[in-house]
Design a protein that fits this description.
This is Putative phage baseplate assembly protein. The protein is built from 13 helices and 64 strands. With 1005 residues, the chain is mostly beta strands. Strands 11, 14, 15, 19, 22, 24, 25, 28, 31 and 34 form a 10-stranded mixed sheet that branches.
């Protein structure tokens, strides 16, 4: 506190005055400080004493001010204990669980020069061996099922965004697959027709349009273990037609069934109604199929032109034609198309002519005998196929048995219904589907003189199609919301099935345990990132916190309400969720994962509508709140004489909490009186008896007051100096005096501790004061915060002056700032602005109080620890018109200030040292608590500018010059980190600069 001096003279002024007076009154005496004589020494001693007198005289106003404040009972405030969270881990996984009682002592520090810091648990906790094995977020509105945590990582080290559809793998699947090993066996170009009949009550005539819409549906075929798209999917004559130029669908195993598979994937059901069908029929049509291979007499023939029975006909000759694609289509109409022609081959039998025996007289030779050459044709050809046991008869229409009898030529088409029993068989080097022709009848084939008319087949092509309504799929599956449903029988019976169905209902977050969480209650600490916290929301404001509904899956097969305590404010801030585990908590399978599931429903879809996504830096099971205090053993005091001003002193200082019990045995307190009954109801009376059942003490709890000004003679009041540990009782007129007793008269139960030494980094609390079985590890996952030392005198004086100024009422902005500093000593800076919200937007009737905590590195947690108490304190001091949620205590809007500086030096020595020093200088200057030119930090709303940084760096004792300086800022709460030039920044009274990424380039030259 700056108090004006009454007398501003210093020791130098006094010495100069003595020297002046000596020259006037004692000219023969020479006063000197360099070589003083005895007189000069006495004069200098007098100057020292006179300076001390002046200082004491100047402190008179300050002392009177303090005395005045003492009369107002403005005492120095004691230290405040730090708060935090501690997590327990078991030493072995097979242990059922460990109970840790309240007030269990934990230790941080080594006990060396810095000493050990004691923390105590604030409630009991059951350390369960159960672990979180899965976190899944289901958002029906976005048609998303996101696996935020799969159980394979350390959940305490994993950052998880709750209620975020972009966090983790999206396992949502809307997929319809069906198969048929005959109909869908395709190779090459294809045309598959699907006939859908919509379900009654479904979407009606829009079914075909939705299924054929390439923006919503993707048609795929299964090939080589993966799904590949068709080239075309559209509507033709009330059919869904699938086409492709190079499609290969063969029998492959999928979902445990070997067949030929086709699938349809819905790109998203976000804006689509459920799609249901009554039945599905499959038809395929393909033309111009070339045979795979043709064999005649075990000789491979040219496909474009060949003679099935050779050039010379012979009975029982065989011709094999292979085509897996066409000949595997059971019940399909298969057509062979080719051009038929014949080749002629003459055969005649000529006997050998015997030699002529010439004679003088010979008979006239007989005329030569002409033998007619008979035609040899294929009278009858049998068509066959392999049925797995042997070659069976294949019935073809169009006169297939006599087609090669030389009565027909030109374009020929032969059709047959592909039998269901057709099977593949290896012929020579090919294992595929075959049909064969056998020549079983031919006229004149045994004639020696004949003409063979051998058939020639050119341009053989095969086509197939399914006539009528088509065939049912052999198997049909539908995936929706990760559930696989077999709808084969539903489609076969005509009862219908839903192909695609999106999720319904509200956004739900599922948290699963790997086992039943034994013991109750269990506590889970959610370390919510400050970027997702609701800084601008008041605790008393409706709609400030999302409404979350917690449920668990019961053994009755339904979801039931979970009993719990939530200090996170609906995942708005870091806190602990305490769960009361019910006995009927059961496991079930959710989205393909079997766990003990609890679900959290975002009842108002707050996290989606406001785009507020809580970010968790770690989830810690078996956590409990701790306080930097140590509960001391009960201290006993005696009252030897009843006199006014009686006091006692505790053995420890820095008292945090205490309870004073006074033995009033023998006092006139009737058990039937209202006073006695009220004390029993408040647990303020304790009756102690000896071993024989006689009353040995009636202990009554007395009340702590700030002063005895309002106390009456019969009031059980006391005043405690928490810094020194002294307890003062009344004088009989203002408060009662404890009765004189020869036995125990006063019992004090108290705890001590507190101070900034309790503000520790994560992991500092690392052991228990007393070892406990099966507890393997103890640690604090986050920093402890909120601890502060005893108030110094200057701070108390300033507080007292402010009390006189505002009178305990918040009226002006300065009043709010002073009262906020009074509410918490952990605040470094405070700024109040009316009618403006945290974003700097005009908000009529709102009072926004921005506070910067001293624990800047742990600002968010420290802020949350004080936010509620500061708001409550200000509401009590403000007018009633501001009590209903109009007072907002918020953090400053932090901006990362990044500097890029080019520093030119003349020598190359110590370049790296210069670079380090300049960077440290900039970081120290921007520091919001200890920066600025005076090392006292920056005010809220004040940002360091380019000129200030330029001047501050230039003041360094370094030979060189600043060539260039660029200053940019970015929002510290924006993950994108978009940088903006300081000049382009819009005004906000709550801006606060923090260090960003600084780059210092040293140029030599």
């Amino acid at each position: 506190m700056n108090v004006p001096d009454i007398d501003r003279r210093t020791k130098r002024d006094i010495i100069e005055k003595i020297s002046e007076l000596a020259r006037s009154y004692l000219p023969e005496w020479r006063f000197t400080e360099e070589n003083p004589d005895i007189g000069s020494v006495i004069a200098m001693i007098f100057a020292d004493m006179f300076e001390g007198t002046v200082k004491r005289y100047n402190n008179v106003l300050y002392k009177h001010h303090i005395a005045f404040l003492n009369n107002l009972d403005i005492a120095i405030k004691p230290s405040v204990p730090a708060k935090g969270v501690v997590c327990f881990e078991q030493s072995a996984d097979f242990i059922t669980g460990v109970y840790v009682p309240s007030k269990t002592k934990l230790i941080a520090g080594t006990g060396g020069a810095g000493g050990s810091v004691i923390f105590e648990t604030q409630r009991s906790v059951f350390v369960t061996p159960a672990k979180i094995s899965g976190i899944i977020y289901h958002s029906p509105a976005n048609d998303s099922i996101a696996v935020a945590y799969g159980g394979n990582e350390d959940i305490t080290a994993k950052r998880i965004s709750l209620f975020d559809i972009n966090c983790g793998e999206n396992i949502q699947k809307h997929f319809f697959a069906f198969c048929h090993r005959f109909v869908l066996n395709v190779n090459g170009s294809c045309g598959i027709r699907l006939a859908f009949q919509h379900s009654e009550g479904g979407i009606g005539n829009k079914l075909m349009e939705c299924i054929s819409d390439s923006r919503r549906m993707r048609w795929l075929y299964y090939c080589s273990g993966e799904w590949k798209p068709f080239d075309y999917a559209g509507i033709e004559e009330d059919f869904i037609v699938l086409k492709g130029d190079n499609v290969s669908i063969a029998e492959e195993e999928y979902e445990g069934y070997r067949s030929c598979w086709i699938g349809c994937e819905a790109v998203g059901m976000k804006d689509m109604e459920p799609l249901g069908i009554k039945s599905l029929r499959i038809k395929t049509l393909k033309e111009d199929i070339s045979p795979e291979v043709i064999y005649a007499d075990d000789t491979e023939q040219a496909i474009e032109k060949f003679q099935p029975f050779g050039e010379e006909l012979s009975l029982y000759r065989e011709c094999y034609i292979a085509c897996r694609e066409a000949f595997s289509k059971a019940n399909a109409k298969v057509t062979l198309c080719f051009t038929l022609s014949y080749t002629e081959l003459e055969k005649e039998f000529i006997l050998p002519v015997p030699p002529v025996e010439w004679k003088l007289i010979m008979k006239k030779p007989e005329e030569a005998y002409y033998i007619e050459k008979l035609p040899v044709v294929c009278d009858r050809v049998i068509w066959e196929y392999w049925n797995g046991l042997g070659w069976a008869r294949l019935d073809l229409d169009g006169g297939a048995e006599t087609v090669f009898n030389n009565s027909r030529s030109g374009e020929i088409k032969l059709s047959f219904r592909c039998p269901e029993s057709i099977r593949a068989i290896p012929v020579n080097a090919y294992d595929t589907h075959w049909i064969r022709m056998r020549l079983v009848s031919s006229k004149n084939i045994f004639q020696t003189n004949c003409r063979h008319y051998a058939p020639v087949i050119s341009g053989l092509r095969i086509e197939y199609c399914y006539e009528g309504s088509g065939l049912l799929p052999e198997r049909a599956l539908a995936w929706n919301n990760t559930v696989n449903q077999d709808i084969t029988q539903s489609l076969a019976s005509g009862s219908g099935a839903v192909l695609f169905r999106g999720g319904q209902g509200k956004n739900v977050l599922y948290i699963g345990f790997d086992r039943y969480p034994e013991g109750s209650p269990i506590s889970i600490y959610f370390n919510i990132d400050g970027k997702s916290a609701s800084d601008g929301k008041s605790s008393g404001e409706t709609g400030g916190v999302p409404v979350l509904e917690w449920e668990y899956y019961s053994s009755a097969g339904k979801w039931k309400e979970f009993k719990l305590s939530d200090t996170t404010g609906g995942f708005s801030d870091p806190g602990i969720v305490t769960l009361i585990i019910p006995e009927d908590f059961a496991d079930t399978e959710i989205f393909g994962r079997k766990c003990f599931w609890l679900r959290i429903t975002d009842a108002d879809n707050e996290n989606v509508s406001s785009r507020r996504v809580p970010s968790v830096q770690g989830i810690y099971i078996n956590s409990v709140e701790v306080l930097n205090e140590e509960t001391m053993e009960e201290e006993i005091f005696f009252v030897e004489e009843k006199k006014p001003g009686f006091s006692i002193r505790l053995s420890r200082k820095n008292i945090i909490s205490l309870k004073v019990m006074v033995n009033e045995q023998g006092a006139s307190l009737s058990p039937s009186s209202d006073e006695y009954l009220d004390a029993v109801r408040r647990h303020d009376i304790e009756i102690k008896k000896d071993s024989q059942g006689n009353v040995s003490g009636v202990w009554r709890a007395w009340d702590e007051v700030d002063s005895f000004i309002g106390s009456r003679p019969g009031d059980r009041h006391y005043i405690v100096d928490r810094i020194t540990g002294e307890i003062l009782f009344g004088d009989g007129k203002k408060g009662m005096i404890p009765q004189k007793r020869y036995d125990e008269a006063i019992r004090v139960l108290y705890s001590s501790g507190g101070g900034k030494s309790g503000n520790l980094s994560p992991g500092s609390i690392d052991r228990m004061a007393d070892a406990m079985r099966f507890i393997g590890r103890v640690y604090n996952p986050a920093s402890t915060h909120g601890g502060s030392n005893c108030e110094d005198v200057d701070a108390a004086v300033r507080r007292g002056a402010n009390i006189l100024k505002h009178g305990g009422r918040a009226v002006t902005e300065e009043d709010f700032e002073a009262l906020a500093m009074e509410a918490s000593r952990s605040i470094a800076r405070v700024k109040c602005v009316s009618n403006i919200n945290r974003e700097g937007v005009f908000s009529p009737g709102q009072v926004t109080v921005a506070v910067l905590m001293e624990e800047f590195d742990n600002c968010h947690s420290a802020f949350l620890a004080q936010k509620e108490s500061i708001e409550s304190f200000l509401r009590d001091k403000a007018s009633c018109t501001l009590c209903n949620g109009r007072i907002r205590v918020v953090k400053p809007v932090f901006l990362k200030v990044s500097a890029k500086l080019w520093f030119k030096v003349k020598t190359a020595e110590n370049i790296y040292e210069i670079q380090r020093r300049v960077k440290e200088k900039i970081m120290g200057f921007i520091d919001p608590v200890k920066g600025n030119f005076n090392n006292c930090g920056w005010n809220i709303g004040e940002l360091p500018n380019r000129a200030q940084i330029f001047s501050y760096v230039k003041s360094m004792d370094i030979e060189g010059s600043i060539e260039r300086l660029i200053l940019t800022v970015s929002d510290a709460e924006d993950a994108a980190g978009v940088e903006t030039h300081m000049a382009d920044l819009a005004y906000n009274p709550f801006y606060m600069g923090i260090n960003g990424q600084h780059e210092v380039t040293v140029i030599y030259g």
